[in-house]
Amino acid sequence: MTPHIHAELGDFATTVLMPGDPLRAKFIAETYLDEVREVSNVRNILAYTGSYQGTRVSVMASGMGMPSIGIYSWELFTEFGVENIIRVGSCGAYTEKLKLHDVLLATKVWSESSFAKTQNGETSPFNEPSAKLSQFLSNSAKRLNTPIHSGIVHSSDVFYRKDHMSFQRIHQEVGALAVEMEAFALFHNARTLNKNAACLLTVSDHLVTEEATTSTERETGFKRMIEIALASLQDCA
Ligand SMILES: O=P(O)(O)O[C@H]1O[C@H](CO)[C@@H](O)[C@H]1O
Ligand SMILES: O=c1cc[nH]c(=O)[nH]1
């Protein structure tokens, strides 16, 4: 048991799917998993373990932002025997090459966040996912015949920003295709602890066209991304 996860060692599978939204975690567990049970609900950060097509898997929300995923991913990796965390998140597109509901695999993340510097003194603004987990996700998308994009993602501490550094500039200077708020901290923790993390995103907002999905779509509408992540479990096991 930790301050933030009320569970025992063995309650979590070695691979955890991690959306930000607790109700997306509940949707994934109730829609896709067999023999599913809730394993923690501290602060309403819902966590479930069950099986998908015979492979044991957990789903747990991260909450929003790097401090939050920083806590949950650290505790899962260090106290609950978790080896792989696949973030299944939403993002805002920085380019018209991405459309609403498209799926994006993060190949690298860039961030202005102080998370890594505060955690262990690292100052690089870039972090990378596990090449192995990302390859599994990419193979899984091919097997399902689901087209996905891949590229650099901006991990931001701020959802509502003034144009101090505009998204157009971040797109041009860094090459970021989209923005979300957790992957940099997740990748940092995984690398620091010698574990694996990857990040799949669905475009929920469009910063160029200003289109947006509803909160209900963010909870239950991202099936293509979720099914790619679930179909990669056979490789992760
Ligand atoms: O939909 P999730 O996975 O929460 O991801 C995105 O949505 C939240 C902001 O609305 C942030 O957590 C951001 O990273
Ligand atoms: O961080 C995020 C996530 C989804 N949509 C955005 O615009 N930003």
UniProtKB/TrEMBL annotation:
Residues 16-217 form the Nucleoside phosphorylase domain. GO terms for molecular function: purine-nucleoside phosphorylase activity; uridine phosphorylase activity. It catalyses: uridine + phosphate = alpha-D-ribose 1-phosphate + uracil. GO terms for cellular component: cytosol. GO terms for biological process: purine nucleoside catabolic process. It comes from the Bacteria. Its EC number is 2.4.2.3. Gene3D superfamilies: Nucleoside phosphorylase domain. Keywords: Glycosyltransferase, Transferase. CDD domains: PNP_EcPNPI-like. NCBIfam families: deoD, PRK05819.1. This is Uridine phosphorylase. It comes from Aliidiomarina shirensis. The gene is deoD.
